[in-house]
Amino acid sequence: MNTTRRDFLQVAGGIAATLPFERAAAACGWRAALLGVAGLTMLSVGAAFFEPASASALPNLVDPHDLGTANALMGSAWGTMVAVGAAAGGVVAATLGS
After folding, report:
1. Could you tell me which residues come within 8 angstroms of residue 54 by beta carbon, excluding any fewer than 6 positions away?
2. Which of 12, 24, 58, 71 gives the lowest tally of CB atoms within 10 Å of its CB?
3. Are 53 and 65 in contact (CB under 8 A)?
4. pLDDT score of 3 more than 80
5. How is 12-80 classified by DSSP, letter by letter?
6. Minimal CA–CA distance to 36: which of 46, 54, 21?
7. Burial, 37: exposed, middle or buried (Cβ in 10 Å; 0-12, 13-18, 19+)?
8. What is the pLDDT of residues 53-83, one digit of tens each?
9. pLDDT at 31
10. pLDDT of amino acid 90
11. Cα separation of 89 and 79, whole Å?
């Protein structure tokens, strides 16, 4: 079997992706960790449908010369959503956490 660097990185990435859930399970219990996995799965499934649809719809909604700006605005909106969501999650965790 010929193992390439890409194969190694895929396996290492898969192992590294499980570490936050193992820490959550140790800190909060397995039920909380499974709830996190379920939530992440739902977000991933939603993104699998939304991202291609929004990327293919954008050229139909804006003029061709405005497409670069529209793509930049979509990326900025996504980045802002991630930052605000992380901050809101931190506030909720600090407020409701133990």
Report:
1. 74
2. 12
3. no
4. no
5. HHHHHHHHHHHHHHHHH-HHHHHHHHHHHHHHHHHHHHHHHHHHHHHHHHS-GGGHHHHHHHHHHHHHH
6. 21
7. middle
8. 888 999 999 999 999 999 999 889 988 988 9
9. 76
10. 86
11. 15
